[in-house]
């Protein structure tokens, strides 16, 4: 497998966590979203990923984009350890939380959106994340155990940790979200979340390495 990734991309981080949890070794090809006007806009990369986003995963003779689609494929083809609960209700909750973050928060504060906002981009990002986290905190009060859905790591957790990192980068006040904060802390203690962390990647700038 070959993963095209950017160290600070939260969507790439989700996939790196999934690959680590499932013990899948891969080659990483960095795609710098800022350098050269954005390496994702090159003709070569666009041919592989028409949306010109990261991540892209080449695996089993196919090329996949969109982080949740990639994670679902890994779940279907390499089911252990599972990232979706067996219980249908918990499975739906994990998907709901993943979509809440991947569709309802992250796209509103990603690089391409913020570039359109202009000088108020930090304030915009803070508002989008806070609004999403207010709803997510309420949801997690009903679904959480040690992690987002009960006591097993799920797809929801793969989305949560990178989004909290984004919140911290944009200096969002996390004090109103004790459940999110508690789960995030527990997840960051797991090896798969450590090795996939933005501070540990081949393309992490020296000043940002752990």
Automatic annotation (TrEMBL):
Catalyses which reaction(s): RX + glutathione = an S-substituted glutathione + a halide anion + H(+); 4-maleylacetoacetate = 4-fumarylacetoacetate
SUPFAM superfamilies for this protein: GST C-terminal domain-like, Thioredoxin-like
Domain GST N-terminal: from-to ranges: 1-82
InterPro entries: Glutathione-S-Trfase_C-like (IPR010987), Glutathione-S-Trfase_C_sf (IPR036282), Glutathione_S-Trfase (IPR040079), Glutathione_S-Trfase_N (IPR004045), GST_C (IPR004046), GST_Zeta (IPR005955), GST_Zeta_C (IPR034330), GST_Zeta_N (IPR034333)
GO BP terms: glutathione metabolic process; L-phenylalanine catabolic process; L-tyrosine catabolic process
Pfam family, one: GST_C_3
Subcellular location as annotated: Cytoplasm
Full protein name: Maleylacetoacetate isomerase
